Amino acid sequence: MKNKIILSALTLFTTANSSHVLAYDLPTVNLGMTSFLDGGLPAGPGWYSQTYFQHYDSDKLRDASGQKLPLPKTDLNYQVIVEQLSYMSTYKPTAHSSLGLNLLIPYLSKISVDDGLNNQALKAKSGFGDLMIGPFLQFDPVMGEQGPKFVHRIELQINLPTGEYQQNRDINPGNNAFSFNPYWAATYWFNPKWTASTRAHYLYNFKNDDPTYGFGAADDIQAGQAVHINLASEYAVHDQIRLGLSGYYLKQLTDTKVDGVKVGGRKESVWAVGPGLMYSHSPKNHVVANAYFEHDAKNRTEGDRFQIRYIHHF
């Protein structure tokens, strides 16, 4: 009887979804990693390092209708460290913009899953994730009488399949597929102390020629296209401290393809909101802390995300 219960749960899970890291079909994307004052680099041209530490905790793996998957447990928590190196040059391809480059490498340092079946339905692996690289165009701030009023940036980010990946794992640090994830980021100053920022991404995924075992004998899969947006607003309560709210929204627009055939019922979506704080020790050193609480997830996990980000200008 116990084996029948396990087999039934495994069949339901495999039919419903096949998990990749932090999601089911879509690769890892920027969900709330960036928030306040996102439209411009804080100290002008030069080299920057940014270190992110993120903790995620979920006990809900949702299906297409937003219901929990039929497993005894659906517990997932992990810690990830992301190191970002940025360079903004003094070269100006136009009169009011500068050319730059971003490079990010994530490391899934710890992951724990519990499906209530001795992890027969959920198998996970830690390790390095996919390398992300993107040239960007940073536009000069539009100035007002009391300081900057608006600043924005465009980046053409590419995700390279360099991360660790195993076909027999449900959750991998890497996605085993290229993806194109360009974005537009902007910050608007209502007054010198109060700002609002956004970062809007478009995601296009290429084929994974070695899909996980949950896809059976399929030769390849191609996750659907998606949009994801970060939003934030904060107020300077002190010369060095800003407090505010931030959030994110993800929506998959097109169906995942398996062996070139569209498969319905797999589109992902989720949104989150939470408080945040920014502490500026100096013009060259900043710490940003954010908490996010997810809602209305479909075909992905739903949980709580906590992050600390350190920004340093050399």
* Helix-strand pattern: HEEEEEEEEEEEEEEEEEEE
CATH fold label: Porin
What's the structural domain tally?
A: 1
What is the residue-mean pLDDT, rounded to a whole number?
91
- Class from secondary-structure proportions: mainly beta
Number of strand segments: 19
Task: Note the quaternary state here.
Answer: single chain
Q: Give the CATH class.
A: Mainly Beta
Overall helicity? under 10%
Q: What is Rg?
A: 20 Å
The fraction of residues assigned to DSSP E strands is over 45%
Largest sheet: 16 strands, antiparallel
In one word, what is the shape? globular
Could you characterize what this model shows?
The protein has one domain: Porin. It has a 16-stranded antiparallel sheet that branches. A three-stranded antiparallel sheet has the order 12-15-16, with no helix packed on it. The chain is mainly beta. It contains one helix and 19 strands. Helix content is 5%, strand content 54%. Strand 13 (226-236) and strand 14 form a beta hairpin. It is globular, with a radius of gyration of 20 Å.
